[in-house]
Every structure is written in C-alpha cells, then in structure tokens.
Please model this.
Amino acid sequence: ASTGMPTLSLYRAVDAPANELGLRLYGKAQPAPLSDVLPMLENMGLRVLTETPYRVSPAGAETSVYVQDFTLVARGVASVDVPAVKDAFEATFARVWTGAAESDGFNRLVLLAGLAAREVEVLRAYAKYLRQASIGYSQAYMEDALAHHPRIARRLVDLFLAAQDPVADKDADVRARGIAVEIEHLLDSVPNADEDKILRRFLNAIAVTLRTNFFQPDAQGAAKGYVSFKLDSQKLVELPLPRPLVEIWVYSPRVEAVHLRGGRVARGGIRWSDRREDFRTEILGLMKAQIVKNAVIVPVGSKGGFFVKRPPAPEAGRDAAIAEAIACYRIMMSGLLDLTDNITIDGIAPPRA
Model:
C-alpha cells in the first residue's frame, strides 16, 4: 500500500465530453508517484490522457502543497454521471491507496455499475472463492464478464443484499426471488457462452449463501476489514468432489481462507498454505484424510486453511513473516466465528447482527 494519502476530487470540466473526467490529487509531503496512481486509475476503468503537476507554496507556510491534475476518459461508457459516482469513486480510490481494498479490474464496476467500494468487494470475494472452487476461468476473465454486463453485476449485489440483510423487512424474501428472476431474464440475452457461465456461477454462489458477516460492524462501529460467507456446498454448481456439508469462505486484502466441514459434528485443524492458486484443493484433500482418520471418533472430518497474500519482504526476517501469518490466522478465525452459533444457558444464540 502507498503512504501519504492525498486528498482527491473527481470532477468534470464545463466543456469536457460526457465520458471525460478530471481528477485532482492534493498532497503535502510530495506528489503521488505516477507508478502508483496510473495502475489504480486504469483498474477503475479510466484511460489517463494527461497529468499536469503544480507546486503551491503559500506565503508563510513551511511546506509546499502539490497538486496533480489528471485528464481521464472512462472506457466502456458514453457518459459518466459525476455527482452520482463521485463519493463512491473517491472512497474506492482511498481504500485502494491505503491497502483496504485490492487494485484490480473489479473496481471498474464503480463507474460502470454504480457500486460502492464494499459492494465491489462482495463480487471480488465471490470471484476469489470461485477460482478456488475450480471455475476454470481466470480472474481477469471474470472481471471482464461483469464489466461487460454491469446491470447484471448491479443486480447480483442487490440480490446478495436483499437475501442476507439481517434486519430486512418481511418482504425481503419475495424481493430477493424477484431479483433472481430478473437476473435469469438478463442472462438470457448474454451472447457469450463463457460469460453466461461465469455470471450463472456468481448467481449460484450468492443464491446458496447461508450466512455472511457483511452487515456486522467492528468494535468501533465501522465495517470490518474482511468478509466471510457460509455456503451450502451441496448446492454449489460444479464443485469438485467430495462435497462438504457446508464451507465458510473468508476474504480480505491480506488473506484468503476456507473451512470445509464434512458434517454437523466434525473435527480437524487449520493449515497455513503456500498454494495461492488452489489451496482449497489442498484443504479438500486434507479433509478427506480427516474423514478416514476420525472414522472411529466422529462420523466425518473438517479442515481449514489460509493463504497469506501480503507477506513481508524476505529481508524483514522470519519473525515478521510469522507475525503476519498469525494476524492472517486471526482474521480467518474471526471470519469463522462471525458466522457461528453459540451454546448459551438460554439455548442456541446466533451471531450478533
């Protein structure tokens, strides 16, 4: 993540074309490195035409202020409603800059589909899971499928929000079913077979999600820095065999993790994996071993594992690597416990909403 977060302002010049935008960055210490800024803007669906830097030295001030004025063109859209997307764009840029969100092609959906940063994170988290569940398509291909069909992307998020909101009204289930039917109709007009399959896998994964911590605030009342989903593995399309009873997927910019449970009563451990692309396959194999190992103890087994996505540089040393792994392990366990019922003196207590 970059440091020295600049202040930013998205705007459109009075005489600019409908798909041309301006972005100003204001920094005190130094101008933002172009090698940091340009990839972020490209991943948000923008082509950078020009950058005009200014250095402002106010009278009597000890430090200068740096202003960078970018001219941008939005790709894939004829026009951008700047007032409508300004807050979401600036918030997403800030989250990427600080490392709270990843910089990838899913961020195009802020401009294309009108999604907020955390709504984009929902689709990113499901995409990361589908990659582990052997979908057979690259992340870039899935990014393109959603970007080519922003209305479907928007409605997939709407379906997730309607189906999972813990304080939804009594009509939420009816509304969720209506959204699912609308998505099915929209999918009928997708001409590309691969994109159709990708979008249907997103729909399936969202539809079989049993629980999520997405709506749970942290101790300070803010959104948590990770998201977890509990999925009905028996209903997931094309999931590699053997299918667990259920599984929990935990996603954050720092770690990805999965926990596979073979039955209602199961036991097993947690593995620190080094297999970025297919650690779920590794964990699935270990769950199968647990089933055999525990046959005389409990009926089935379980297993979990996590992958550290941002390990410290080698020169930071072994202790730094272990510290990051422990932090990632804690994120994983928090993601699991967020979705876990508790046995109390008054009976079964669900997770706090």
